[in-house]
Amino acid sequence: MSRRDDLKTLLYDCISEHGLETNTEIHVEDETPLMGSGSPLNSIGLVIVVTNFESQINETFGAQVILASEQAMSLKRSPFRSVEALSEYADQLLPAESS
Amino acid sequence: MPLQWLLDRFQACPRDDAVIWRDAVTTYGELLRQIDAAHEFLSAQQVAAGESVMLDADFSPTAVALLIASLQQRLLVVPVASHVVADRQDLARIAECSRRFHVSDSGSYEAEHYPHRLGHQFLRKLRDAASPGLILFSSGSTGRPKAAVHDFDCLVAKFKTPRHKQRLVTFLLFDHIGGFNTMMYGLANQGCLITLEARDPDTVCRAIEQHRAEVLPTSPTFLTLLLMSGRLDQYDLSSLKVINYSTEVMPESTLSQLNARFPGVTFRQSYGLSEVGILRSQSRANDSVWIRVGGEDYQTRVVAGLLHIKARSSMIGYLNAPSPFDQDGWLNTQDEVEVDGQWFRFRGRQSDIINVGGEKVYPAEVESVLFEVENIADATVTKEPHPILGNIVVAMVRLQHEEDMKNVASRIRKHCFSKLPAYKVPVKVLLDDGQRVTERFKKKRQD
């Protein structure tokens, strides 16, 4: 499994964790948007999921990435447009994998 | 001479306990002799009326005597609690002190000279009117300490009305408006001041038990620490009649726990500021955080949700900051209140309120819910800037026993989502390093 797949699994875990905390069933797929219409998350939900995802990444990979930043917000193609896109964005922020 | 009425009261009860210091009793007769000795010390020092002097001390009988003698000699007194870490030189410069008086461990007076002379118009005004003054520094949890100048006669006038004679613990500090209030209330009513060598739960409980204290004026933060300590059952605290809590918003959950632990004790919230003194207050019920404040010397009004106060005992002004009063003498306290007829409920300092995506979050309200979560010993809610919401709510927690923080955060959020609107739920939950209480037992919400 690639690092991006690991990241995606982490993100799915964070989303289902949020579902448990709010006592709601959150159904997402790779292409489900994380913000805006069509997202199962409200703005607080998004921020909690992203913050958790960030700390899981940093713990798992010993990194210090920041996902919710001015930079992320100003990208033409929002990293929050889908589960897949956020996993990809996180992968880009992590240092390149040593072969 | 100023304060003669107070000394007359002391003279009427020479055998009664006045101050308990390091477990030794000083009676009012002895206190009067110590006041004479303090006058002799001031004469030997050749201090002139209207000089500004720092009194670096605690509530020892010798310090109380020197404070009273200094005010009788119409000095401008700057109390600084001896164990508080503060740059004395800097405070002396701001308050234009000519000297610093200190009470040594053996109880003798010591003096240190400073080169400062009175220049500020407020201090000159007091000197020229031959009025004693009291200069109180705000605790300065945010920014530099501000020096509030009081005409002592205005501040002390309300204590001439006789009230209950009680045995009070001097928990609040010597240089704090609340500590000053405890001391004046105790002495003016021929009560007894029970002083503390430290302010941890064991020391406080031991003092209450040993000296049969009736009143404990303290802060919600200390009461939380007291509940957490698990030490309450070790002591006989049956002498306690009143617990006065002030200075911060009391979490409702803590108040209900306290009521269960102290049946028969009256819980009373008080409200005061260095700028205006302590208002008389009444709690709606023992377990209620709604209070009525005022008294004959105070007027209150609420403007845009913020409490404004106009007081006869208001300070003259700050030495080192612009006047906070409007032209009619009203002070905007910056405290947000909810109003129900004549009752107020304090929501928090405006500067502590967290704006999450345009919605207001009151830290105390969230803290109250956090205290309901299992394994949470203490909680402080603070904020962090966030690019999406402006700010997010961050909870700093202390645990009763070790637990994986991921679990803790998850349990906390689950409980909060069931009790609070989503925007009030802590996004981050961090383990507290134990440094979030100031030396004045207030929550430190800003670093």
Task: Describe the protein's architecture and organization.
The complex is a heterodimer of chains A (99) and B (447). Chain A is mostly helical. Chain A has a single domain (3-93), classed as Non-ribosomal Peptide Synthetase Peptidyl Carrier Protein, Chain A (Orthogonal Bundle), CATH 1.10.1200. Helices cover 56% and strands 0% of the residues of chain A. Chain A has 4 helices and no strands. In chain A, helix 1 crosses helix 2. Chain A starts with a helix and ends in a 6-residue tail after the last helix. Chain B is α/β, with parallel strands linked by helices and 447 residues long. In chain B, strand 3 (52-57), helix 3 and strand 4 form a beta-alpha-beta unit. Chain B is globular and about 65 Å long. Chains A and B meet through helix 1, helix 2 and helix 3 of A and helix 12 of B.
Helix fraction of chain B?
25-40%
Mean pLDDT of chain B: 91
| Strand content bin of chain B | 25-35%
The separation of the N and C termini of chain B measures 45 Å
Architecture of chain A, according to CATH?
Answer: Orthogonal Bundle
Q: Quickly count the domains of chain A.
A: 1
Low-confidence sequence ranges of chain A: none
Q: What is the 3D shape of chain A?
A: globular
Dominant shape of chain B: globular
Which labels suit this protein?
heterodimer; A: 99 residues; Non-ribosomal Peptide Synthetase Peptidyl Carrier Protein, Chain A; 4 helices; B: 447 residues; alpha/beta
What's the quick description here?
With about 100 residues, chain A is mainly α. Chain A has helices at about 5-20, 45-60, 70-75, 85-95. Chain B has helices spanning about 5-10, 30-45, 60-70, 90-95, 120-130, 150-155, 175-190, 200-210, 220-230, 250-260, 365-370, 405-420, and strands at about 15-20, 25, 50-55, 75-80, 100-105, 110-115, 135, 145-150, 165-170, 190-195, 215-220, 240-245, 265-270, 270-275, 275-285, 290-295, 300-305, 305-310, 315-320, 330-340, 345-350, 355, 360, 375-385, 390-400, 430.
